[in-house]
Design brief:
This protein has 301 residues and is of the alpha+beta class. Helices cover 44% and strands 8% of the residues. It has a domain of 185 residues: 3-Layer(aba) Sandwich (Glutaredoxin), CATH 3.40.30.10. A five-stranded mixed sheet has the order 1-5-4-2-3, with helices on both faces. Helix 1 runs antiparallel to helix 2 and helix 5 packs across helix 9.
C-alpha cells in the first residue's frame, strides 16, 4: 500500500489543513489499520509538504504477550426472595435466591488471545446492573472507523436489549485527537450526536475538511463554522464547547484510552473485560458476531 501526494490546494480555505498538521495526521493514521490509506491520501492532497509517509498498519498494535490475560472476580448481588416466582416453598425459595446467576459460555471457536483479549484488570462500566456495556473507541479521522461505522450503526438498531452501547473518542494526547474528541462531546451535549455523527465522518473523509488544526484556537474556529452550517448557534456553541460536562468527559476518555490499552482504532471493549477489533475477529461481520457472543457471556440470567 502506498501513499501519494500532490500540491493541489483545497478549494475551501476555511477548512485548509496544511504542513505540520498533515504530517501529524498521516503519522497518527498508522494506528488505524488497513483502511487508513484512503484517508491518508486525502490528507496528503491538501498538504503543502511532499514528504511521503509510509503507513505500517500493525506498528502500534499490541502483541498478545503485551496484553496481559486475567480477570478480576466479581460477585453478583443477591436477588430478593420476594422477586422469585410464587409457589416456591421457603426452602426452595432460599436455595433459588442463593443460586449463582447463569451466563452463556463464549463459543469455543473464538480463541482468547487471537480473536479477543481479556484485560488484566476488569474496568468499571457505566451500565445498569442488569445490562452489558459495549464500548467503541474510535477516531473521526480514522479510515477504519469511517468504514466500520455503518456496520456498527446497523448492529446498534438490532442489538440485544440488555446491551448498552457507548462511543468513546480516542485520546492519545495530540491536539488532533483532542480536537475531534471535543467535537464529539460537544455534539453529544447539544443533543445533536445522532443527527451529525455520520455527517462529521462524511465531512472529513468525503469532503476532505478535517475540522482540526494543531492550534486549538483554529480548531475551535473550524468546528464553530461547521456546526453553524448545521444549525447550531454561536450562543449554544459557546455555552457547550468548553463546558464542565465536555471537559469532564474528555478527561474520562483519556483515562479509559489508557485503561483499555487502546493501541489502534476502532477498538471494541465488552463490559470492561474483553477487547477485540476487526482484524482480530477476522472481518466486520465476524466482529459483530463476536460482540454479541461476548456480551451474551456477560449477561447473567
Amino acid at each position: 500500500m502506498t501513499t501519494f501526494m500532490n500540491k493541489q490546494r483545497p478549494s475551501h480555505p476555511v477548512y485548509a489543513v496544511r504542513g505540520a498538521l498533515a504530517v501529524a495526521l498521516l503519522l497518527a493514521l498508522a494506528a488505524c489499520g488497513h483502511h487508513a490509506s484512503n484517508t491518508a491520501s486525502k490528507i496528503a492532497r491538501h498538504a503543502e509538504s511532499s514528504t511521503a509517509v509510509s503507513l505500517n498498519a500493525g506498528a502500534n498494535r499490541l502483541t498478545s504477550n503485551e496484553r496481559a490475560v486475567g480477570l478480576a472476580d466479581e460477585s453478583d448481588a443477591d436477588e430478593s426472595i420476594d422477586s422469585l416466582p410464587s409457589g416456591l416453598s421457603p426452602i426452595a425459595a432460599a436455595v433459588a435466591a442463593n443460586a449463582p446467576a447463569v451466563s452463556t459460555p463464549i463459543p469455543s471457536h473464538w480463541i482468547e488471545g487471537k480473536n479477543y483479549t481479556t484485560l488484566a484488570a476488569a474496568q468499571p462500566t457505566a451500565a445498569a446492573v442488569d445490562k452489558v456495556e459495549v464500548v467503541e473507541v474510535f477516531w473521526y479521522a480514522c479510515g477504519h472507523c469511517f468504514h466500520f461505522d455503518p456496520t456498527l450503526e446497523e448492529w446498534r438498531k438490532h442489538k440485544p436489549a440488555y446491551v448498552e452501547f457507548v462511543r468513546i473518542p480516542v485520546m492519545w494526547g495530540s491536539p488532533v485527537h483532542q480536537g475531534h474528541a471535543r467535537l464529539f462531546y460537544t455534539l453529544e451535549a447539544l443533543g445533536k450526536l445522532d443527527e451529525l455523527h455520520a455527517v462529521v465522518f462524511h465531512e472529513i473523509h468525503d469532503n476532505g475538511h478535517y475540522l482540526v488544526d494543531q492550534d486549538p484556537v483554529k480548531t475551535e474556529q473550524l468546528q464553530r463554522a461547521f456546526l453553524k452550517e448545521h444549525g447550531i448557534s454561536d450562543a449554544d456553541f459557546d455555552r457547550t464547547y468548553r463546558s464542565f460536562s465536555v471537559e469532564s468527559k474528555m478527561h474520562r476518555a483519556e483515562d479509559l484510552t489508557k485503561r483499555y490499552r487502546v493501541a489502534g482504532v476502532p477498538a471494541i471493549i465488552v463490559n470492561g473485560k474483553y477487547t477485540a477489533d476487526v482484524g482480530s475477529a477476522g472481518g466486520e461481520p465476524q466482529l459483530i458476531q463476536l460482540i454479541n457472543d461476548l456480551a451474551a457471556s456477560e449477561h447473567k440470567h
